[in-house]
């Protein structure tokens, strides 16, 4: 996946809407997944995958 210089506006808006509608437990799981991905990246491991709920 390539990263554009400027983020697509509609994509950013969609993500903001999803986060605004998320329940607290969903946000906690998202943050935990991000932290786990950062820690595994630091160790050179592959990123853990989680199925959408």
Quick rundown:
It is built from two helices and no strands. It has helices at 9-21, 24-42.
What does the model show?
This protein has 53 residues and is mainly α. The protein has one domain. Helix content is 60%, strand content 0%. It contains two helices and no strands. The protein is flat, with a radius of gyration of 13 Å.
SSE blueprint:
Blueprint: H1 9-21, H2 24-42
Question: Treating each run of at least 4 consecutive H or I residues as one helix, how many helices?
Answer: 2
Rough shape?
Answer: flat
Overall tally of structural domains: 1
End-to-end C-alpha gap: 23 Å
SS-based structural class? Answer: mainly alpha
- Amount of beta strand: under 5%
The ordered H/E elements are HH
Share in helix: 55-70%
List descriptors.
single chain; 53 residues; mainly alpha; 2 helices
């Amino acid at each position: 996946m390539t990263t554009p210089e400027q983020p697509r506006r509609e994509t950013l808006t969609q993500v903001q809407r999803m986060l605004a509608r998320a329940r607290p437990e969903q946000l906690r799981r998202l943050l935990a997944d991000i932290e786990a991905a950062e820690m595994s990246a630091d160790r050179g491991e592959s990123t853990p995958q989680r199925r959408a709920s």
